[in-house]
Each structure stands twice: as structure tokens, then as C-alpha cells.
Amino acid sequence: MTQQGKRPQRGAASGPRRAHPPKRPSGPARPPSEDQARRAALDVLRAVRADDAYANLVLPKLLRDRRITGRDAGLATELAYGACRARGLLDEVIAACCDRPLAKVEPQLLDALRLGAYQLLRTRIPAHAAVAATVDLVRNDLGSRVTGFANAVLRQVAERDEAAWLDKLAPAADEDPVGNLAAHTAHPRWIARAFADALGTTGDELAAALRADDSRPLVHLVARPGEVSAEELAAMTGGDPGPYSPYAVHLDAGSGDPGALDPVREKLAGVQDEGSQLCALALTRVPLEGGDEAWLDLCAGPGGKAALLGALVGISGGTLDAVEQTPHRAALVERITSGLPVKVRVADGRDPGLPADHYDRVLVDAPCTGLGALRRRPESRWRRQPSDVGDLTKLQRELLTSALGLVRPGGVVAYVVCSPHLSETEGVVAAVARKTGATVLDARPSFPDVPHLGEGPYVQLWPHRHGTDAMFCALLQR
After folding, report:
1. Using CA atoms, how far apart are residues 280 and 413, in angstroms rounded to an integer?
2. What is the mean pLDDT of residues 119-145?
3. Same domain, residue pair 305 and 370
4. Which among 193, 211, 213, 249 could disulfide-bond with 239, CB atoms 3.0 to 4.6 Å apart, if both were Cys?
5. What is the C-alpha to C-alpha distance for residues 417 and 405, in angstroms, rounded to an integer?
6. Mean confidence (pLDDT) of the chain
7. Could you list the active site residues?
8. Predicted confidence (pLDDT) per residue in 295-329, tens digit
9. 222: which strand partners?
10. Is the same domain home to 255 and 358?
11. Closest by CA position to 304, among listed 351, 269, 355
12. Looking at the domain assignment, is residue 2 inside a domain?
């Protein structure tokens, strides 16, 4: 669905009256009633919009700083992440209740309308409570001059439930099945199309893949090899060992800030999706002839895979070089890998100044659209644009080509992206393999006991199939 556009209405039924802002304040101002859960959620929406912030980074710190816990923290989390995730749908509905383009609505007011509309359409909060609480936030931030407008828009939103609004606004399933599914799962159509192309279907599995992005994911931890086992970490945290990675532990999505857990603070564990762990481990599972002591992470920031690889290579007496172009991200890598045989280098992975033909194993965890982690970064689906793909695929090809020049003959390179977009996955690998003559290996044996891996030679993980982010992994041998 478009974020701010309006679709022609189908059918004979007329829409609700459109709201317009009053010319004068509607009644005397009254002291606002501050709601700390909704206030926190609204502040997250504003940080995402105004500062290009990531909700999953802003909210935990905000909850800690304001000492919001328990049910209030749970409500703030549901509202903040949910409104970010459903923004396109919310904007369509708000636009249908407004007499002007959303671009003409004050950004702060639009943030509040999104928060209120989310409560009305996707929670069990009573309509009168959702409207009143949102209007209080508007009054607190913008004064009484626009409270009448906010009240009128939200009351019109409340005249239909989500299903009825979708019947009114979504394209017909028989005319545009991808667009219909995109609307019903609050995805931009181009992302739904990319998922359909990767899955090879516009049917039930596409619906399942898109719905998986709308669910709150479990928190995944990684136990540091040589320090603690997954079973021990599960006992420490109250979690459960993951089904596929020998180092994974799953925690309930409502278990609080994982960064505050003792094993994480003590560097016995880190926060890392199980699919990300599996892709890093796949690099280590390809049998090699000759030496196996020099490993390289060519795009190391923020450091999760570097920490896992550094711990593993350290057990056998080897070392890992970790390249990161951005100094502040390189500092993150240094912090997370301290105490491990990891040397962090600030350099561009396309030309890092490292010796050619030197490394036994190289990981290219390339920058990508991140379409595979939309459930963890709810705002990303509306932030990314189709135009981003071209620049990213060029960078990805250059990084993978660089890696193949740094690995020794007979060595292995793992190309990993958190995306199922075919241009970023199979397209990049095929182009670089043709150019360099590298052999594309069958990656599936490096993912033991993981089901539903398809025909190969690549591995594409999916939330709805594997409970992981939609990570892609290709293994190439020089």
C-alpha cells in the first residue's frame, strides 16, 4: 500500500465524513493526562520519523531511562513496534478520513494519529479510551488548536474495523493477489513482490511469509563457544536451546532488554538471530585442504558474527581479521570481540589493503536492504525503497569480488545477506562467479538438520519456515 496516497473507492457505499482542522480552538484547554506507555510509544515514532532512528534501539533505552516496566512497558512495546510495522495501512486509513493530503498534516500530529489509529484497528483497547488518550497527547504537545481535528479523524477511523477498512481500500485479490496480500499484511507492494519472486508463489506460502513479518519474534542469544554451552545459557536466562544452531538460545519476546542479562554483560553470550549464527557457522563447516588458521570477516560491524567466528578460530589457535569501514562501528566490533584473537581494521572491504591469496576462510556479510529482518526492524519496510537495490547490489558484487581475491586458492568464501531479494542473492553470486571463475558450492550440507532448504546450491532461510530471519547464504570456493 502507498504510505500517503489515496485509492479510488470501490462499490456504492459512501465513505465517512472527512475531518478538517478547526479554525479556532475547540473549547477551553484542560490539563493533559500523561500516559507514560503511550508517551514512550509516541516518542519512538517521532524518533523514527525525525531522526531515522531504529525503533528496536530507541525503545529499550527509553524504557530503561524512564523506568517503565511491567504492563506499561508491554503496552509501549506493542504500540511502538506495531505502529511502525503497520504505518502504510494506518496512513491509508487516516488519509481516507482527512480532507487534505497527509503531507499537509503536521508531522507531530500525524505521528499521534498513527498511534491512535493503531490502537483502534489492531488492539483491544476500547475506542473511547484510544481516542481520548491520543487527544490528550496531542493537546500536551501541540495545544488545543488541533485537538478537535485529531478527535474527528480518530472517531472516523473507529467507524470501521481493520477488515472493513481493508475491504474498502485494498486491491481486489482476483485482480492483484500480491497487492491484496501486501495490504492485508501491511507491506509495500514491491517488498511483497520480491518475496513472491524468491518463493516462486503468490499463494498460501507468500501469505505465510508476509504474516511472519507481522509477528513479534523471539529474542535469540548466541552462547560464546569455549565459554558456555547453549544448555548452560538457557539455564541462566530461563530460555530454551535453539533447534538448529548449537549455540542458540531462544527467549520469550516479552522477556525485557536482553542487553541487561548477566551472561550478555559478562560476554558469555550475545544477541544474535539463529539464522545469522547458522550462516557464520556454514563458513566453518566446509572441509579444506591445507592450513586453516587465517580467517577474515570483511564487513564486520557491528560484530556479532566476528565474535562467533573469533571464538571458534581461537579454539584451534587461529586468528580473525575483522574489517569495518566506519570508525564508530569498528569500535563496536573491538568492544564485542575483546579478549578474542581478533584484529579490527578500519578499511573499505572493497580495497582493504590486506594481502591477496592469504585467508583460508572469508565471510562477506554484505550491506543489504535488510528485507529479511523486517520483523525485528518494523520501520524498515517503509524506509527502504526499490531504488536502494541497484546501489546495494553494485556494492555487494564489489565486496564479494574483493573477498575472492583475498582468499587463498582452495579457500572458501561465504556470501551472506539478510534479504531474500533475488537481485541481492542469486543475482550477485551468479554475476561474480561468472566474472571470477569461482566455484559455487552446495551450501545445504553446511546447514545440518535444517529442513526445507530447497534445491540448492544456495540456502535461503525464512521466518515462517525456520523461525529465523530471512538470511541468504552462498558458499564459493576459489
Report:
1. 11
2. 96
3. yes
4. 249
5. 20
6. 92
7. 418
8. 999 999 999 999 999 999 999 999 999 999 999 99
9. 248, 270
10. no
11. 269
12. no
